[in-house]
Structure to design on (109 residues):
């Protein structure tokens, strides 16, 4: 009888630390491995760097197209840009143009 009491007393004394350690382990694991943990934070930082690089490329491309479109718009029409786009889209040339053919793989631009 005395043995059972001491075992029961030790079990009661061990319950609180076991619960506390389990709860602490749960929060520590989620702080490092969870959805908003340290490892996923590092992945989000890498994704952010890639997204910023893509944004920069997109903004540069947008500026390029904006310059080209502004050359074809408004009262100041850029005749060279209009001529270039018309010829490229229609695949034609002026009879007075001099056409230089380059071998495959050797482009001027």
């Amino acid at each position: 009888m005395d043995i059972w009491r001491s075992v029961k007393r030790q079990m009661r004394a061990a319950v609180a630390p076991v619960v506390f350690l389990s709860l602490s382990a749960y929060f520590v694991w989620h702080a490092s491995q969870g959805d908003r943990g340290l490892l996923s934070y590092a992945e989000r930082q890498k994704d952010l760097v890639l997204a910023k690089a893509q944004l920069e490329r997109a903004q540069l491309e947008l500026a390029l197209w904006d310059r080209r479109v502004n050359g074809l718009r408004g009262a100041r029409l850029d005749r060279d840009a209009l001529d270039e786009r018309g010829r490229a889209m229609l695949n034609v040339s002026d009879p007075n143009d001099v056409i230089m053919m380059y071998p495959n793989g050797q482009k001027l631009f």
